[in-house]
Structure formats: C-alpha cells, structure tokens
Amino acid sequence: MDPKWNEDLPIYRQLRDRVVDMILEGVLIDGDALPSVRNVAAEYRLNPLTVLKGYQELVDEGLVEKKRGRGMFVTDGARRQLLKDERQRFLNKAWPEVVATIRRLGLDTDTLLKAMPEPGDQGEKE
C-alpha cells in the first residue's frame, strides 16, 4: 500500500479503496488475510480506529469477513463482485463521456484500435 494520503478524501476511505485495488489486481485473493489493524496503524502511523473504520466498510460491503480471534479475510467471490460493480460503474459513468469525446474528435474505430495498448502495457488491466 502506498503511504501517501490524499487530503481530499478521508484516510479510512482511501485505505478501503487501496484494499479494493489490491483485490482487483489480484494482490489479495479469496481467503487471504488482510494485514492486522495494529500492523497497518503502526506502519502508516494511523489511528487504529481509522484503519478499523476502513476495514469495516469492506465488511459492510461483503468484501471482507471478520473471523473472531483470527482477523479479517477476503470473502469468496469478492474480486468477481468488484469487477461486476466496477464494469457497471464504468459503463454508466465513464463510458458515455468517452463516447462523447470520441464523437467530438471524430475518431474512427480503426484509429482507436491502433492506439489501444497491448496487454501488459502501462494502463492495461484485465
């Protein structure tokens, strides 16, 4: 996790978003344990309550489950659910803006396909 924090968002939300990114990128997979609240708080000099609040959001969203006395773990199907949600959010919000820009600039399909990065190039994810 990146220790730099954006001043525009609460830290607990940024922490939640970073764990989501780790799940989407496959760094954390179903059943993996999240780093302990104490370890994250110590490593990034955060209040443990801030870390707990970020983790609790993940629990509330069903992406992480608490196992009493053992810690917090990525739930089965968390990545699949996140991909579904992120894809829908992209199609509903970002894609209409992209389409409008494509039309405004008069770009055609051939030009767009030629400009598309190869898998593994920067910016390309599953």
Detailed description of the structure:
The structure is a single chain. With 126 residues, this protein is mostly helical. The chain has a domain at 11-78: Winged helix-like DNA-binding domain superfamily/Winged helix DNA-binding domain (Arc Repressor Mutant, subunit A). It has five helices and two strands. It has helices at 11-24, 37-44, 48-60, 78-105, 109-115; strands spanning 64-67, 71-74. A two-stranded antiparallel ribbon has the order 1-2. Helix 1 (11-24) crosses helix 3 (48-60) and helix 2 (37-44) crosses helix 3. The longest helix has 28 residues, at 78-105. It is elongated and about 55 Å long.
- SSE order, one letter for each helix or strand: HHHEEHH
Decide which structural class fits the backbone: mainly alpha
For this structure, the quaternary state is single chain
CATH class of the domain at 11-78: Mainly Alpha
Number of strands: 2
Summarize the amount of helix as a percent range. 55-70%
Note poorly predicted spans. Answer: none
> Averaged pLDDT, please?
92
Q: What sort of overall outline do the alpha carbons produce when their principal axes are compared?
A: elongated
CATH topology of the domain at 11-78: Arc Repressor Mutant, subunit A
CATH homologous superfamily grouping of the domain at 11-78: Winged helix-like DNA-binding domain superfamily/Winged helix DNA-binding domain
CATH architecture of the domain at 11-78: Orthogonal Bundle
Sheet-strand content, in percent, reads 5-15%
Strand arrangement across the biggest beta sheet: 1-2
Helix run count: 5
Q: Profile the largest sheet.
A: 2 strands, antiparallel
* Gyration radius, in Å: 18 Å
